[in-house]
Please model this.
Amino acid sequence: MTAFINILLSFAMMFGGLCSQLDYVIRPARYNAQTLTVGELPTPVEAPETDAYIQLSEVNMHYRIYGTGKPPLLLIHGNGGSVKSLQEAAAYLANDFTVYLPESRCHGSSSDPGEISYQLMAKDLKEFIEAMGLEKPVIMGHSDGGINAITLAAEYPDLPGAIIACGANSHPRTFKPYFPLGVAIKNLFHKDKLNDMMLTLPDFTPEYLSRITCPAYIVSGQFDIMWNSDTVYLAGNIPGSDMTILRGETHSSYMSQNGEKAYTLAHAWLMAKGLL
Model:
């Protein structure tokens, strides 16, 4: 019976998702559709100031820092990523912030304690923020990093100054079908706990999302891996949040694949919110 209900929910999600993709074309204002145009940019810094490790309660975390002497901003990479994933965005954002790029547990050169979940990664980030003595940092994450930003803000509402969650999904059911199918096939040949996490987590309920109290910006691309309706769901259940679905963008085209666009996106919203 449970399996049958899950199948029905999946079909309902797919139908709603297809409708939202069409609706985006017909009523773009409903999704705050915008085209991300790169204008005049500051000169990116050439290299990180710091490349080091810090021992947390469960993880020896590798991190880099770009820039100095400015308010803190954490850039959180996605599933399978590393400090290199968002380094171009960090180099630009270092003009406005001291940018911290931590590597999540089980990723890059950070240690692997054997377990991974979004709650565990949020706990690691909390410990990292506290160990570094950061006050009200902006948290900007891509993909799983966006999910981490949402989880951190829900689990520890007083910690972040603001979050920018790019390409985050609320549940594996909200992926367009091709994506989890590809992950599941890959898992058949090389089982990986990172793949397992994408196929089973997160599960953001309205009650959970309502715990977020800091300014929040929920962002996705028009051709992202999750349905547009899921971005609307996330933004609609985070009190006072802002949202945009970017015209012509994919899951990574404006983040890990283009640091200039990532900077432009963050800078414009943070300026509008009075956070710069």
User: Anything to note?
Assistant: The longest helix spans residues 2-26. Residues 86 and 257 are 8 Å apart (CA to CA). The chain has a mean pLDDT of 95. The first strand starts at residue 50 and ends at 55.
